[in-house]
Structure formats: structure tokens, C-alpha cells
């Protein structure tokens, strides 16, 4: 029996739809009365683990799940030791540098050296500013990053932007898009190479789903 | 005008009650229709920032807030550079090592060397196992840590326990209590020492509240 790690939150609905198309039904996780984090699929061929998006690569890396679905942003931040098998196309958002709309900056390179940048994605933010050779101080926040520029704690933020509503409401604007993120299919490298429990069959079925949708 | 960082979540209600007792009314944050993360108190003497509990010490450390209220667990994990001024007495919970109820372990020292321990509090967990001289591998999870022992990914977890309901539901039991956590009043060290905006007056009023409650 294979185990699939599913991400809680915004990617869950599309994840379940895509797995259903591949013959794996985990729609029980969408039931609002459900408190189970671990359910066995009706056919008994697979079990699902419902975990935080950031934890999906952890379960896959440790081989506790053979497959997982997670946003590229999480993979970029954590650089986990997992096999990236497919871009699933949904859950698309931008990973951006943003700052105050009425501020003096029009690109990331305009930011003053050694300024402060708040982010939930400390590692990704640091990598980006290193790549443009701008020394900045990253302030690690775990939520409501937009408060950084509003309170004056930071000049800019690095965050995920989907609709742009939060930025707009807080009078912020995107300076630079670092990359576009979408949901990815990942696998435990060894399980995938050894084709444990016919893993490749599920991978093929999920890949076909991507083509159907596209 | 001073700024106070208030923690979202389980400590918010008691935090607001205690600040009200000290003459600072941030009850607007309890209004379910409120989307503001920053409100100025009716008297105009103070502003409140509503942030994630883990971010409270960040705002205080950077001087963006002169005062903050946060659980001791967060302070123990992050060791931020803030002044700890008072134990506020509420929000008490235990920081514990737990494992499967039907497992072979009856104390933390029974755990096998190099076993895996899942935790949201990586730094605190590491410090604890170093203090008992037991080498373990800490698996960083961001939520639903109880899945660690259930899925077999880890032998034990280190987590906050308040009612014990989650442990019970997942057939886990506490092996060891590392410490008891309660809400603490913290201040920006320099602002406190220089008594910016009569900070010490608010600190005294909040301390009196603790005595009233106790």
C-alpha cells in the first residue's frame, strides 16, 4: 500500500481532484466533520496523510509517504531530498518582492544596501538577494508579513502573491517576481527508483491527469 | 505613543482582558468582522499590533513594539533579545515529551539513542535531549506533530500540551514535562531602560493586574 501526503490549505481541493482522476479517492479529507489526518482509500490500495504544506516534503523525504503534492515555493525554500516528478499546473502564484506603493523604489535593486526585508521564506529571500548581490537583513516572520513595511520594521517583503488582494489592501506593490509557483508531484527517491508497490503506475496516471487538464 | 504586540490565537482573549485592566482597550481585535492588524486605542495613547504568537518577540526585539505578550514556550524556543518583565499567569500549558501509550518507553531516558523525535520546537527539543545527554534526530514539523509516532516516522514528539485531548485522541502519553509555560510580558530592552513614553507606568499597571487575578 502506498502512502500519499496531501497538503492542507489552498492546494487541497485540486490535489484531491487530481488524485481522484488517477483512481485514488481521498475526498473524505474535504468532509468538514472529518478530524482524521490519516485515511485509507476505499480500494485499500493507498493511504492519505493530511499534513501542513511545509511538512509534505518531510514525510516524503523520510519515506513515510512515497508520494506527495506540494507547492514549488515550499520545495524552493526547503530544498528537500525528494524527486520532483511533475508540474501539476494548479495552485499558481507568484513569489515576489514587494514594497510600499508610495515608496521610492521601482525595482529590487533600488532597495538600499543593508535594509530590512521581512519574509516567511527566509532561505529563499536570502538566496534571491545574494543572487542580485544586494546585502540585506532578513527578518523572519511567520505570518502577516505585510505588517513589515506598514509598521516601518522593513523596507520590503518577500512573499507569495496569488490574487494580489492582500498587497492592494495594504498599499503595497510588487517590485519583482522571483518565480512562479505551482503544485508539484514529489516522490521518495529510493521508493521511486525501486518502483515500490508499483509507484510508477500512479505517477503515470497523475501525469495523464495533467495532460487532460491542460 | 507606545505600541503593544498582541498574540493571535489562544492567548488573545486573556491578553486583551489584562491590557484592559491596565487601561488599554484593544477589544476591537476580538470583533470577528475586524480585519485590521493595527489599531489605535480609543485614548490615543497606544497602538496594538495583532501578530502571530511567534512573531511577537520579533516586533519587540526590533523595537517596533515596546511591549509584547507571548507564551514562555516561544521565548524558550527563540531566545530573543527582549526583557522578560512579568509572568502573567494565564495560558498555562506543559511542554512535554510524549510517545505511544502502548510503546515500551516510560521515561525520556528509555528512548533509544539516535531515535527520531518530531517537533515544531526544534531548538527547544534539541536543548532538552542535549541536557539529558541522549543523541536524537529531531524531525522539524510545522503542525500535527502527533502524526510522527502514529505513522512510525518518529519514536516520540516534543510539543505543547494544554488539555491533553490531542494526545489522548491519538493514543499518546506524556513521558516527561520539560517545563510549564504561561503568558509573559516582554519589552524592548532599550525602550524599557530609557522609559520611553512612560513605559514603566504601563508595566506597573499590568503587573498589578496579575496580582488582582492571583
Automatic annotation (TrEMBL), chains A, B:
Query: Per its UniProt record, what HAMAP family does this chain match?
Result: HisG_Short
Family annotation (InterPro entries): ATP_PRibTrfase_cat, ATP_PRibTrfase_CS, ATP_PRibTrfase_HisG, ATP_PRibTrfase_HisG_short
Family designation:
Belongs to the ATP phosphoribosyltransferase family. Short subfamily.
Question: Does the keyword Transferase belong to this entry?
Answer: yes
Q: Partners and quaternary state?
A: Heteromultimer composed of HisG and HisZ subunits.
Name of the encoding gene: hisG
Q: Which GO terms describe its biological process?
A: L-histidine biosynthetic process
The record ties this protein, via Pfam families, to:
HisG
- At the top level of its lineage, which domain of life is listed? Bacteria
Q: Which reaction equation describes what this protein catalyses?
A: 1-(5-phospho-beta-D-ribosyl)-ATP + diphosphate = 5-phospho-alpha-D-ribose 1-diphosphate + ATP
Ranges for domain ATP phosphoribosyltransferase catalytic come to 52-206
Q: Which molecular function GO terms apply here?
A: ATP binding; ATP phosphoribosyltransferase activity
Q: What is the organism of origin for this protein?
A: Leptolyngbya cf. ectocarpi LEGE 11479
Which locations, inside or outside the cell, does it occupy? Cytoplasm
The protein in question is named ATP phosphoribosyltransferase
What Enzyme Commission number does this protein have? 2.4.2.17
Annotated keywords: Amino-acid biosynthesis, ATP-binding, Cytoplasm, Glycosyltransferase, Histidine biosynthesis, Nucleotide-binding, Transferase
Amino acid at each position: 500500500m502506498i502512502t500519499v501526503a496531501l497538503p492542507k490549505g489552498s492546494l487541497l481541493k485540486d490535489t484531491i481532484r487530481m488524485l481522484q482522476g488517477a483512481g485514488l479517492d481521498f475526498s473524505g479529507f474535504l468532509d468538514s466533520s472529518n478530524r482524521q489526518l490519516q485515511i485509507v482509500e476505499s480500494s485499500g490500495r493507498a493511504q492519505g496523510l493530511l499534513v501542513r504544506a511545509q511538512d509534505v516534503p518531510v514525510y516524503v523525504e523520510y519515506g513515510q509517504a512515497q508520494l506527495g503534492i506540494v507547492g514549488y515555493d515550499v520545495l524552493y525554500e526547503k530544498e528537500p531530498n525528494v524527486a520532483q516528478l511533475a508540474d501539476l499546473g494548479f495552485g499558481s502564484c507568484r513569489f515576489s518582492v514587494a514594497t510600499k506603493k508610495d515608496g521610492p523604489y521601482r525595482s529590487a535593486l533600488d532597495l538600499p544596501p543593508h535594509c530590512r526585508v521581512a519574509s516567511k521564506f527566509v532561505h529563499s529571500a536570502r538566496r534571491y538577494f545574494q543572487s542580485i548581490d544586494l546585502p540585506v537583513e532578513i527578518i523572519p516572520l511567520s505570518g502577516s508579513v505585510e505588517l513589515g513595511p506598514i509598521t516601518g520594521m522593513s523596507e520590503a517583503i518577500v512573499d507569495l502573491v496569488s490574487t494580489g488582494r492582500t498587497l492592494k489592501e495594504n498599499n503595497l506593490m510588487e517590485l519583482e517576481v522571483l518565480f512562479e509557483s505551482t503544485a508539484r508531484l514529489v516522490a521518495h527517491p529510493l521508493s521511486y527508483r525501486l518502483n515500490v508497490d508499483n509507484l510508477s503506475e500512479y505517477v503515470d496516471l497523475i501525469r495523464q491527469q495533467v495532460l487532460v487538464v491542460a
